Amino acid sequence: MNLSEISDVVEKRKDQYLEQLFTLLRQKSISAQNIGIRDCAELLKSMMEDIGINTRLMETDGHPVVYGEVIKDPDAFTLLIYGHYDVQPPDPLDEWLSPPFEPAIRDGRIFCRGAGDNKGQLMAQVLAIKTYLDTCGELPINIKMVFEGEEESASVNLASFVEKNKELLKADLVYTSDGPMHDSGAPYVLLGVRGMLYVELTAKGADWENHSGNKGNIVPNPAWNLIDLLRTMRDENGRVLIEGFYDDIRKPTEKEKEIIKELPFDREQVAEKIGYKQLDMNGEEYYHKLTMEPTFNIAGFTSGYGGEGTKTIIPSQATIKMDMRLVVDQDPYDIYKKFCAHVEKYAPDIEVKHLGDMKPSRTPADQEVVDVVTGAVSESFNQETILQPSLGGSLPDYVWTKILDLPSVVVPYANFDEANHSPNENIGVNNFFNGIKCTCNVIHKLGKYSTQC
């Protein structure tokens, strides 16, 4: 196999491959609302079987996993490919330029819910298997595929699924294509993700809203109670004051420090793309904060009246939603206990509710198989690959690195401005086809690598 052969096959099948992707995109699969999920799983299973992938639906306590495999030799190198077939709700509908579940091509991009996250990237992986098999006759390694239907709902049943199926999921490397490429347009190889803890704080005052004049200084304002609590949690420099919050953070290795120093960074370009022109930091600081430091974020603050004009009331309740992105080796459950202990100490009347969590994950950068994947990706895109220790966001990568004890890499195929989770989600047409070619080349290079081990 060589890339020119693969490129020729993909070029001849462009219309066919686009229609297969469009078929999957048209099928709704909104996990949070349980809309179309099983129909989508059945459709994906059928598409994989048509390619020659031995596929089955495997039940969980929630939505089913679509599991597929092509086994060359039980003793051969095994690549486990992960993705998800569920999508976010399309709201707000009036901001879409075309119907959210009817794929449309404009300006070289495919617009549809799930185009980038994750059906476009998932189908690039599936169609890579078809392309490789049709070009070469057989795969050089074993392939296993796990496509879940709950990633957009925090992958609540993936860990238990992996625990129950350790023997089935035995592999040598996990490969995920999700998220956007680097803002420069260069290909990425990401070696981990930050974890997350999501909590809700609720403060209550009187049983109902009161007149802010007639009852001012008499009835307490729960919004101020929350603000006073927040002041005890974080200092003026942004450092979290919760006891033990930073205790278990793994320090970056020298190799990881070197990688961070070498990452490309254009301050003005990044500032423009994130809509914050006041951004004032260098590349090393930017990437260290993005990959090696936890966050302590207020995602929403709701209390009282926020409509047009004025309404002079003392609210009866105030609510804050917070998310904390955690880094290796912080444990969400441990951080939650410490968070609750802090609230109990400073504001015991405030209610804390756990809304979700995900563990952080990181694969060491000095593994030889990381170099193999990085080289294959660079060759596929004919461009130097950016190697980054961690994604700033969260994926359920820990199920592979912690439960299966496997190295895991994330190689995004979608464009940086894919607008995933937003109206007018998209993936570049070329990004989709390049993803097929890249997956083929990664499989090929891993085959060559495995024969040398």
TrEMBL record:
Domain of life, per the record? Bacteria
InterPro entries linked to this entry: Cyt/Met_Dipeptidase, Peptidase_M20, Peptidase_M20_dimer
A Pfam entry, by short name:
M20_dimer
**Residue runs in coiled coils:** none
Has keyword Metal-binding? yes
DNA-binding as a keyword of this entry, yes or no, is: no
- What UniProt keywords are attached to this protein's entry? Hydrolase, Metal-binding, Protease
Domain Peptidase M20 dimerisation: residue ranges: 192-349
Q: What is this protein called?
A: M20/M25/M40 family metallo-hydrolase
